[in-house]
Amino acid sequence: MACRARRVMMGRTFDLDLYTDRILPFTTNDTSPEEADMTTTEKTKYQTWQIGDVRVTKVAEMKDIPADATFLFTEDAIDLIKNTKWLHPHFATEDGGIRISIHAFVIESQGKRIVVDTCVGNDKDRNGSMFHNLSLPFLADMEEAGFPVGSIDYVLCTHMHVDHVGWNTRLVDGKWVPTFPNARYLFAKTEFDHWMDPSAQDIGFGDVMGDSVKPIIEAGLHQLVESDHRVNDEVWLEPTPGHTPGHVSVRISSKGQDAVVTGDMMHHPVQIATPQMSSNFCSDPQQARETRAAFVGRYADKPVLVMGTHFATPTAGHIVKDGAAHRLKVD
Asked: What pTM did the predictor assign?
């Protein structure tokens, strides 16, 4: 019998097989309720937004996956999600289940193409978890969306968890090589230093650093940056620690229009209504709560499009007041 994969963070142990059991079977072409009138391309491939002169495209690796709420949160989340009616049908089910997504955002700004987070990747040994040895058409979908691997100028990882660094590399002739050979891979220094410490290795999911980060270093393609680094005048990092020590979100501003890519500062829109709800995978849950509450306060009732790195379709919206709390308003 195979041993059960476990993940240890901040002294807490998570049984990965247990969490995997809480994800329902998925395909990359599942159709969510709000997509009935979309074209096939819109359903299965990508979404786009225009932020002033900046164009943002979402390319999904695993789209709108149905899951038990306890995959991300504690048991008491189920009733909260049931009773938070604005989550239905886009982000949750009537019985308290959730929908989540794993996708990359490609930002086109000032002639540069920036991939934000590179999902899980193919062919990776992930200890039998739901991410193990995938064979998904992500790169083909990227190319169909107009982004062949050689056209990418920057790769930006909001943090270094397994589902955010996977397509940093791909397997070629038995060796892990950079997927985007012409790109500079930007890693926030605080995050990088944390994960390069052997005591912090995320061994529950296999050798994530070894197959998805170290080959980038060996190729000389990485660049360590501060947590408020500016890629250019339109795109910069915003420190949002707590989920991991050096976690960053990505701000976009162009011609008076604004957006922010959350990363895993929040995993699901229910955390807009309840910022104190941290995920099962946060390294410092209290800091994550404080960061999230500040984020909601900062962007509530502001014309800033919030783009969720794990939000199911329609993926983006605006934070608005909802009585004593807040909600995500989607078009």
From this structure: 0.89
